[in-house]
Amino acid sequence: xxxxxxxxxxxxxxxxxxxxxxxxxxxxxxxxxxxxxxxxxxxxxxxxxxxxxxxxxxxxxxxxxxxxxxxxxxxxxxxxxxxxxxxxxxxxxxxxxxxxxxxxxxxxxxxxxxxxxxxxxxxxxxxxxxxxxxxxxxxxxxxxxxxxxxxxxxxxxxxxxxxxxxxxxxxxxxxxxxxxxxxxxxxxxxxxxxxxxxxxxxxxxxxxxxxxxxxxxxxxxxxxxxxxxxxxxxxxxxxxxxxxxxxxxxxxxxxxxxxxxxxxxxxxxxxxxxxxxxxxxxxxxxxxxxxxxxxxxxxxxxxxxxxxxxxxxxxxxxxxxxxxxxxxxxxxxxxxxxxxxxxxxxxxxxxxxxxxxxxxxxxxxxxxxxxxxxxxxxxxxxxxxxxxxxxxxxxxxxxxxxxxxxxxxxxxxxxxxxxxxxxxxxxxxxxxxxxxxxxxxxxxxxxxxxxxxxxxxxxxxxxxxxxxx
Length: 469
Ligand code: 5AD
Ligand code: SF4
Description:
The chain is α/β, with parallel strands linked by helices. The chain is about 35% helix and about 20% strand. The relative contact order is 0.08. Iron/sulfur cluster binds next to helix 9.
């Protein structure tokens, strides 16, 4: 299951996170597309670049290196990269007129999927580097600076995390009180619509000791809320400190022992991998937030089968019942695809019915987008675009209503909020609810990093307003 793909146009998001060593002589501009794992990867790449003498900039015009960390999940995501490369080509030409070089690199899932094709289509690109080889970035850049065009998209045999430098504590502190930590990458499920098994490769779990050490570093730098990432995060497994085989549930119990870490989350999960111990963690671990992103994609058994999801709608609903029995305040989130090949009106109605049955607190929904090389793209019976549009509208209207109803149901209730950052408006701070909603409070309600009790007074479009309880 891939992570939620948010379209990230906040250009400086990754660049902002650079460590700037005293000896920095060059500047890098990083733009991150796609899911949270790309956000994490951009941070790790910029850490590696900082150690290599590249300081961050959010002014693309002054960059010696422009790095696009790309997403390939849907066609629109990939096309965005090519149009951005068109603009960068002009900037590069402008800069060349002043006698200065601008290297252009494409990283992430488009890099992995398209490889050398990117350089053919966008000759301004100097290097293409896939997600499994980021630790080789400094060496690759040295070669690119001497004029070589480089495509580095093999699945490295070495563990990139062993080689990627850790950022300085001061930099971690600057990054704030919430953090991501990739514990698992890749996917062996091969859903027929999905490129992830091809772009991120097969499932790899990071070892317990590596994860615990990174989580301890983060906690020591003031991180209060940690989100474990993986395309199929609940398929994570490893060997514990006592030599026993651990699943994600056991890992969460271990991470909950780390002083300072007050909140744990994980994303994204596949319904087939919700093991008993993980459900038990939701029951027994107050640190584990009562919010679960558990995509189902469709409510029709016929479509689920065609998607190779390996479960039926009923299995998903039964699972949700078990999870809710373990933790009754858990809120659910999901991903949906409308217009998968062969989807009839009745299939779509089954999806609407499942959404009614589950009642989601939030969700992401997409029109099916055929991805080259996936079995779905080869199927017949593609659904016309207009039908996809119409179904998506109906589904999104229902999901939005559920999301708003969930927000409204919290009015008057007292909940925990982690104060995360200053608000957009003076006099406010923004916190995070247990269910991932932004909570707007008075700036005097507490300091960043505090977990405070607030009473919800009203809802905004996507947020909650609250006063100190
Ligand atoms: N077309 C549309 N949506 C897709 N997703 C993955 N692949 C495709 C595709 N080819 C959606 C799924 C997944 C989410 C991150 O993106 O719903 O869970
Ligand atoms: Fe998720 Fe299926 Fe894609 Fe794997 S193949 S990342 S389980 S949607």
